[in-house]
Design goal:
about 170 residues; alpha/beta; Rossmann fold
Length: about 170
């Protein structure tokens, strides 16, 4: 998948969406921000996450998701769930959802809307399974998908930012 051009030269905004914003999209959010920082892009790329449902608004991420991230060396402590806003496709450069149901909830595929795993180098276009009703192994599986896909996103965003350099001040 080729990323859409940034709306603002030299900057990129990515929104990540799942159902409740307590498992998949916050895990992806934390990992992607970490990978962007490692690549020196965190000052030019903004990441946000949300859920299509509002049941968990204001809550931290699921304790199992947070534990999986912590064990892997990430800091999940800042996350608070928020609900997806229909204005996001117009405000973000890219909206990536975790599964087909989330995709339908946000209005379907569009130029700037797709599946998170469209950028997965192992299984492009697959869904990120919801680990909420399963055991710890489901969170580990999600983390592996999120890490490799985040690496691919960082590479693609770096290329998109190079192709559309920052305007001079």
């Amino acid at each position: 998948m080729r990323l859409p051009e940034p709306r603002t030269p030299g900057r990129y905004r990515i929104a990540l969406v799942c159902l409740g914003n307590i498992c998949r999209s916050p895990m992806a959010h934390v990992v992607l921000e970490s990978r962007l920082a490692d690549a020196g892009l965190d000052d030019r790329v903004e990441v946000e996450s949300s859920g299509t449902g509002g049941w968990h608004v204001g809550n931290p991420m699921d304790r199992r998701a947070a534990a999986t991230l912590s064990t892997a060396g990430y800091d999940p402590s800042r996350h608070r769930a928020q609900q997806y806003d229909a204005s996001w496709p117009a405000a973000y450069d890219l909206v990536l959802v975790m599964d087909e149901a989330n995709l339908a909830d946000v209005g379907g595929r569009a130029e700037r809307v797709g599946l998170f795993r469209d950028l997965d180098p192992v299984d492009p276009g697959g869904e990120v399974p919801d680990p909420y009703y399963g055991g710890a192994d489901g969170f580990e599986e999600v983390l592996a998908m999120v890490e490799r896909t985040s690496d691919a996103i960082v590479s693609a965003v770096g290329g998109a930012l190079e192709a559309a350099p920052e305007e001079p001040a």
